[in-house]
Amino acid sequence: MIRTATTFDIPGMVELGERQHARSHWQGVIPFDAGDCASSFRYFIDTDAICTLVAEQDGLIVGFIIVMVFPMYFNTSVMSAHELCWFCESPIDAFALEASARQWASQKGCAIIAIGAQEDARTERLEHVYARKGYQPF
Fold this sequence. Notes:
Blueprint: E1 2-4, H1 10-23, H2 34-46, E2 50-57, E3 60-72, E4 75-88, H3 91-107, E5 110-114, H4 123-132
Parallel strand pairs: 4-5
Antiparallel strand pairs: 1-2, 2-3, 3-4
Helix pairs in contact: 1-2
């Protein structure tokens, strides 16, 4: 099930955030801090311009996506959405998270949605997946 995150989801999100960090290019560059991660998730959940969604299976958080909307600085009439972080251990739920975030961004009037790849080992594979979903590299 995909739904809007609440503060009750933060412990599960932090656990997943630690797994994501361990697989990312940030590991070895910036150490993981669970307290800071929890504070960041709380900020994301509480901020109107940020969509924080979780994927839940049998009462457990198995994924999340966090997307922020804002006007482009060089043309403020164009709203854009940018994925801040996205991690999911279930491919089916990962696609459902992305689709729900894209729908939210569209409802906010976004003309552009930017999504990145944070896992070094799968970057090329993710680029192909994103391309099949209509995203273009830039």
